[in-house]
Write a structure and sequence with these properties.
127 residues; mainly alpha; 0% strand; globular; disordered C terminus
């Protein structure tokens, strides 16, 4: 499935003149920690590649491909979490949880709890 995801993303980016920067060092973590656990079958792969194509084309190279790949996976397969991201922007962009203001911790805890629930519902090889 992982090779199908990568192949589909490569195909999705074909013909886009400026897909944005690709940071190769970030890709394995994005793929294995975010994208792959959310995709369950080939239909999901095709839906995901289609979504990525449209978003990358619309952004005109202004956003890193890895960021688009991660956010599109969350938008497509975890829409409830995606809709909460904007309100959690401060909690998600604080450099260290240790220095995070107390009022932001519940937001991050809620997101992590949702991730724990999602991981428990995954096949054992992804949990």
């Amino acid at each position: 499935m992982t090779s199908q995801i990568e192949s589909s993303l490569k195909d999705a980016l074909e013909g886009i003149s400026n897909p944005g920067p690709f940071i190769a060092d970030e890709w394995p973590d994005i793929l294995l920690d975010i994208v792959r656990p959310l995709i369950r079958n080939m239909r999901d792969v095709r839906r995901y590649a289609l979504a990525v194509h449209g978003t990358v084309a619309a952004l005109g190279g202004q956003v890193s491909q890895g960021d688009v790949f991660a956010l599109e996976a969350v938008r497509l397969f975890m829409p409830d979490v995606f809709h909460q991201l904007y309100s959690m922007r401060d909690a998600l962009t604080t450099q260290s949880r240790r220095f995070m203001p107390e009022q932001l911790r519940p937001q991050l805890d809620m997101l992590l709890a949702h991730d724990k629930e999602r991981r428990q519902s995954l096949p054992i090889c992804f949990a």
